[in-house]
Fold this sequence. Notes:
The structure holds two protein chains of two kinds. Chain A is 81% helix and 0% strand. Chain A is an all-alpha fold. Chain B is built from six helices and no strands. In chain B, helix 1 runs antiparallel to helix 6, helix 3 runs antiparallel to helix 6 (112-138) and helix 4 crosses helix 6 (112-138).
Amino acid sequence: MKDHATLLLIFSILMSLVLTFVTKDGARERIKYFLVLLCSFIVLSILASWLMFPFPF
Amino acid sequence: MEPGRKPNSQSEEQQASMQVGAFRTFTACVGGAFLPGLGHALLGKWDRAIVFFGSITIMLVLGIQLQGRLFNPDFGDLFSALKFIADAGSGLLYWIPWFRGLGTGDPTAYTYDYANVFIYVAGLLNMLVIVDAFDIALGRKR
C-alpha cells in the first residue's frame, strides 16, 4: 500500500467523503457530489503530475 | 402575547432559549475539538458524526503507520507552529499517540511526506467539521 497511486486514491476518497457530508444533504445529492469530487481529485492530480513530469527535480 | 402573561415573561423565555442555544453550540464545538464527529453526535447528526470520525481517524492512523511525524508543540518558528496547529486539530486523536510516543516519523522513509500530508489534512478537516457543527447548532444549517 505504499505506492502513490493507492495513497492518492485513499486520500481522495476520504477527503471527498468529508467534504460531501459537510456540503450536501440528501442521499442522491451526496452521491452525485461525492463522485464529481472524487473524479476531480484523481483526474486533476494525474494531470498535475503529468505537467510536472518534465521538471528535473 | 398570550392572555394572562406578563410582558417580561416572554423575554425571559427568549433569554432562556438563547442560553440553551449558546450552551448547545459551545458543547458541540468543544466536543468536536476533543474528538472528530463528537460535536455532530451531540447535535443528533449521527450520519455525519460516523463519517467524520471514521474518515479522520483512518487518515490520521494511516499517516502514523506510513512513518509520518506528529509535530511537537513548538512555537519557535512559524512553520513548526503551523504544522503543530494542523496536526493538533484532530484533538484526542493527536494527543493519545503523541503521549504514547508514536508518530516520531522517519524522514528517510519513502512515504514520509505523503504521511505528513495525511496527518495535516486530518487535523484541518476536523477544524472544518467543527465549523460545520457550529453552523448546525446555530440553526444556519440543517
